[in-house]
Amino acid sequence: MVLCVLIVLPLLIVACARGTPPAVTASPTPPVASATTRPTATLTPDPLPRRRPAPRTARRAIPTAASLGLMPTVSRPATATPSPTQTATASPDLTSLAPATPMTEMTPDATAEEEAAVPASYVAVRVVPAAELPQAHFWLRRPFSPDYSMSAVQSFPYGSTGGGQYVLHTGADIMNPWGTPILAAGDGIVVWAGDDINQVFGPWPDYYGRLVILKLALDYEGRPIFVLYGHVSESYVQIGQHVRAGDVIAAVGMTGIAIGPHLHTEVRVGENSYLATRNPEFWLEHLPGHGALAGRLLDEAGQPIPDQMILVYRQEQPDEVWQIAPTYLAAPEINSDELWAENFVLADVPAGDYWVESACGDMLAAGAVHIEAGQVTFVEIRFPISPPH
Q1: Counting Cβ atoms within 10 Å, is residue 211 exposed (0-12), middle (13-18) or buried (19+)?
Q2: Domains of the chain (ranges plus CATH)?
């Protein structure tokens, strides 16, 4: 069995830890989700690094399509893993979380040893034709208006632990200031609004703190869809109340295990259970001018390979890692979509051309992908390795 080489990332985000939330005063009526009512609370800065290191594999040694028949020609200078003493501090400006913002931290030149570290074999990245894909379900309204940050923090995605630093993530975190209005994802009914001290919805009591759960009017393959909004500072709805898409239902807080103001949102399919979660970024509507990259990374038996890193480069900046998408960890509460069978999703990708790579043992999977606005590009990578026993 060939062990997968994992790329260790300096993943730093606003994460979850137990703490006592500040006292808040409930508002008798929800605020209007507009710029005129923007809360004045200070946002905790997200220490997401501006640039992530390129893999240690030497770029100059990558063959051309003529020699391998696997991938187009690409010219990228070799880069090395940056010094662990190098740090970067993010601006508290919410626009710093926009998916179009590239990483900017510099990396040192590659060593001669790294130049010689050429993979023994290459694996094609297969872009699955749209005709072979099931119907997409980017149905849910974003939980914030365009006046606020609308994208999830990419350094702690669904199905990950932030490089082993945090609890297993069953949702998506969107950072906004304390009190920011939260919007309903769709038409539905409120099935919970309150705390989770006595009624447990996660792995232990007081996990989400104050939360709201909606059961949507629509279903998926005949099964109900629930949307959970966790760590809220206050809720503006009651159990049994009907809501419409875009209604203000709660406000951002840091209750439960949160240590910074943000919204934790979950999608649950089939039942309102912690074990029934799905990746919410595979359900939230696309941002204008953006699409999504999703796919599955498998072994030779067709089984998903967990905790594997997929590196994404912009074609116009081929020497710079733009984003890194980890595959889901294997856990009972982490689930792929039954029809798509994905094990990674990178949402909010600006339309354009990209290069995708993933290394496993002495093998490198690489290929070009194109992202269309409002669409999902789905890839499959199959490494010829035996599944673990």
Answers
A1: buried
A2: 59-134+288-382 (2.60.40.10), 172-278 (2.70.70.10)
- Of 7-16, 150-159, 250-259, 305-314, minimum mean pLDDT range: 7-16
* pLDDT of 212 strictly over 80: yes
* Distance (Å, whole) CA 197 – CA 369: 46
Q: Which residues contact 67 (CB under 8 A, 6 or more apart)?
A: none
CB 58 within 8 A of CB 115: yes
Answer for the pair 163, 8: CB distance below 8 angstroms, yes or no. yes
CA distance 259 to 18: 7
Give the position of tokens 């949402």: 347
Please tell me the distance from the alpha carbon of residue 100 to that of residue 117, in angstroms, as a whole number: 31
Contact 354, 322 (CB under 8 A): yes
pLDDT attached to residue 386: 80
What is the model's pTM? 0.74
Tokens 């119907």 belong to 135
Structure tokens at 245: 């898409």
Are 314 and 320 in contact, with CB atoms under 8 Å apart? yes
Please give the Cα distance from 353 to 33 (Å, whole number).
34
Q: How many helices (H) and strands (E) does the chain have?
A: 2, 19
Give kind and range of the element (H or E) at residue 68: helix 65-68
